[in-house]
Design a protein that fits this description.
The complex is a heterodimer of chains A (68) and B (619). Chain A is of the alpha+beta class. Chain A has a four-stranded antiparallel beta sheet with strand order 1-4-2-3, with no helix packed on it. Chain A starts with a strand and ends in a 5-residue tail after the last strand. Chain B is of the alpha+beta class. In chain B, the strands form five sheets. In chain B, strands 2-1-6-3-4-5 form a six-stranded mixed beta sheet, with helices on both faces. In chain B, strands 8-7-12-9-10-11 form a six-stranded mixed beta sheet, sandwiched between helices. In chain B, β1 and β2 form a beta hairpin. In chain B, α7 runs antiparallel to α20 and α19 packs across α23. Chain B is globular and about 60 Å long. Chain B starts with a strand and ends with a helix. Classes of the chains: A alpha+beta (68), B alpha+beta (619). The interface between A and B is medium-sized, with 23 and 43 residues.
Chain lengths: 68, 619
Amino acid sequence: MWVFEEVIRAEEPLILSEYLNKKNETLASLQTKCLVKLNDTIIDRKEFSTTRLKPNDKILILPLLGGG
Amino acid sequence: MIGTFLEINLSTKSVRKIHLDKNLYQKYLGGKGLGAYLLFNYTKSGTAALSEENPLIFLTGPLTGTGYPTSGRMVVVGKSPLTNTFADSHVGGHFSYELKKTGCDGFIILGKADTQQYLWVHEDKVEFRSASHIWGKTVSSTVESLRNETDDKARVACIGPAGENLSLVSAIMFDKDSDKMRAGIAGRTGLGAVMGFKNLKAVAIKGSSKLDFANPGLFSEGKNGTRETIKNTDFLKVRHQYGSAHLVGPMNKEGFLPTNNFQLGFIKDGEDLYCESMNKHKSRSSTCYGCPINCGQIIKTKNNDEVKIEYESVALLGSNNGLKVFTQLAEACHLCNELGMDTMSTGVIVGFAMECREKGLLGGLPEFGDSTGQLRLIKKMAYREGVGEIFADGVKRAAEVVGQGSEKFAIHVKGLEMPGYEPRTSWGMALAYATSDRGACHQRCWTVNAERSGALRMFDFKDKPPFVADGQNERAAAFSVLVCDFLPFSVKDLCAALEGVTGIEFTEEDYYRAGERIWNLIRLYNIREGFTRKEDTLPERMFDESVLLPEGVYETDHMGINRKDFEKALDAYYDYRGWTIDGYPTLAKLEELELSEFVRGEKACGYLKRLYEQKSLSS
């Protein structure tokens, strides 16, 4: 099971949606079926563009592909 | 031109070409969403599923046949005779592409033929032909016969003996497992019986039209972006190697694998069911049209028959019925495919029958682990012979006949037999099953990995209501565009591809909003058909009994669901959706989603109009 986890560094973008867009250049992280947690709280997709990141925030992205 | 459908009336043997307004694609995307809109408008409240008035709608999506990854998908929509809910049964393979090549986006099959018929659709011409010579034939035999008498490259959707005999767990089968090109099955919700009721044995199809693209460059941009995402998704390598059956081992080790009719969450000494063992019997891979994932695992049975195996079939015809030998369940799966039956529902029904025997409630039934007995019961169900008559219409109705408290271990939601993920281990699935639009379904929102990874806490409903609701909305959109459940993609790429095909501008917001709109429209349909909060629940076993879990994995070796906790989670789920405590979307929510026409004004049905005149729903 693949989970992407990272601690936010000072140079990362300040808005969650910008951060995810940047990561999407190298990861398949913005897949439709994924769960994004910031400091252990699930972030609603509608809040991606209004959620601000701080250095040392912990972000987790979990793709939810699967089932059978 | 997108939105071209053939309205085929079996009663009058007439065909009408209709063009749907392009705006409907903006609102409902296609596939499931458009099917829901059409079903709502083609039927009246209370239309019986097995009646001339219930249409059977074959729909492609806007991306079907375009070469976009996993664009070989289509869906069959109607009212389910098994659940009496809205039904959408999705299917991969190659039929969908052939359908698009006829120049149409789908068929709306109306009425009932007075004699047994099949349809031969070539380009956009439809011939009504007698099916008396193929009535009674198994699926592969039907497919071969129809190719002989139409075109050897024709694609064939048909029912087997189970559909002819109106078994409510019968499927619509698309081509056959032994074909070089991958076959597909619209398995769930009993739509094979709707086809059987219509006296329609099969639809054979062949086309040669080229597909139109409004903006080929933009389409390619979206397609290539998605192919890149696929390349970057390591998980798909496992999916390619083993198909969905790669989950059997992890699910067994972690207590998610239904065993002995959902009495246990694992099967002891069940290693022969794992994908590594399955691959010893693998004959080849097979892929749906336009799919680079290539996940179909074709197995050879003891009798040298080929059959495609998925996780659900292993779980529900295997461990759920006490079988530990892979070749035995492969044989059962092959039999279901030949008779045209849903392997999932059939597996759960046989498990129920085995428990009836274990409890001494009914004679003439196999015991857990009896593979030959399972085969015998499957045949009896398909032909409605002897005790098979009791079980042919699903586990809910079987429990009503057997009685004696058997309702408590009839494993279904709204009449649809439960998939192969134990809900007492995955509480996210418990909520997803209970609130699913077509009864217990794992494809509306699959929470298992989120729970296994710790991203969602196990054995807890915290965070699950919004997670499940958002997942359901998103999948409603994906199943309307009609891409596969296993496709990783960014919505940005998908929207580019959609616009490239249709010429309609789609934003990411449009995609998610359409998903929520579709979910709410289907909720309205189900409310119109009499469904209430009462049906958004789980089998009694899930509340009244603990499931046994493997030792040493969790802090406990057994787990149940507290009914009050579940009801609170349901309250939170409704609240998040903007529904009342009784599970009705408020008028404000319907207005927000541009759905109020279904409850107010000329087009609204009387029942919904009266319901929404109540003050409590107006706000």
